[in-house]
Structures are given as structure tokens and as C-alpha cells.
Design brief:
By secondary structure, the protein is mainly alpha-helical. It is 68% helix and 6% strand. Helix 1 (31-56) runs antiparallel to helix 4 and helix 3 packs antiparallel against helix 4.
């Protein structure tokens, strides 16, 4: 795999297949607006995904999902996740993810969709608070 650097040349990639920013998000001039745009996409897509997962997930897939959920919870609680807004946001993340995982595990599509929507809406509220703080400090 090659890396092309405009004006510098073409090089062999040291870690082929590892792309840190495949969609080029780092190049968006307004990162806050990018966050809102991505949450809008998530709000329209992920509740449906959670619904379908609740309808179709196998016992093996649910076991993997629940193990991954526990791993993320442990990482957050042990301080491996360094979000800037502290423990309140981290605990909301744990609660939101757990509600989604529990609904999918119970094969409850309505609750899975609702839990995902609530989780993303909480993210949107946090992003709105960040925007408000930036406006007040500008």
C-alpha cells in the first residue's frame, strides 16, 4: 500500500490497512458543526440499526456484544477513557450503552430503538452545551 503526499512524493505505508481518518474528518474546517452533522446521521440511522439488531441478533452475537460492553465499561471506570467532561458524561455513556445492549439482548426492538435514540439525543445535548459554552466565551 502506498501513501501519496502531495508535493513530497509517494511512499510505502508502514501499516497498510490502518487508516486513522478514512473519511477525512480532520479536514473539516468547523469541527463542532461536523459533530452536529454526524449526530444527525447517527440519529437517523442508529436507532433503526439497534431495532434490527434486537430482531436478528444470535445468542453468540449477543454474548460478544455484552462482553464488549463490559470491556468498555471497565475501561471507562478505570480511567482509560479520557473524555473532557468528566464522570457525569462517562456514567451517562455507561448507562446509555448498557440500556441499548440490554434491549438487544432481550430481543426488544422497540426498547432498543428508543434506548439508542435517547443515547444519541444525550450526546446532542452535550454538544449543544459545548457550543453554548464556546459562544459565551467568545
Amino acid at each position: 500500500m502506498l501513501i501519496i503526499r502531495r508535493g513530497k512524493g509517494t511512499y510505502i505505508a508502514h501499516h497498510p490497512g490502518e487508516i486513522s481518518d478514512p473519511l477525512g474528518f480532520a479536514y473539516f474546517p468547523d469541527q463542532l458543526q461536523l459533530g452536529f452533522d454526524l449526530l444527525e446521521v447517527r440519529l437517523n440511522l442508529e436507532p433503526w440499526i439497534a431495532r434490527v439488531a434486537a430482531e436478528r441478533a444470535t445468542d453468540e452475537e449477543i454474548a460478544v456484544m455484552n462482553q464488549n460492553c463490559r470491556t468498555v465499561e471497565q475501561d471507562i471506570l478505570s480511567g482509560k477513557n479520557h473524555l473532557p467532561n468528566g464522570n457525569i458524561l462517562l456514567s451517562q455513556t455507561i448507562v446509555g450503552h448498557r440500556a441499548i445492549a440490554d434491549a438487544i439482548s432481550a430481543h426488544d426492538p422497540d426498547q432498543a430503538e428508543k434506548s439508542m435514540r435517547t443515547h444519541i439525543e444525550q450526546n446532542l445535548a452535550e454538544l449543544n452545551a459545548i457550543r453554548q459554552e464556546l459562544l459565551e466565551n467568545a
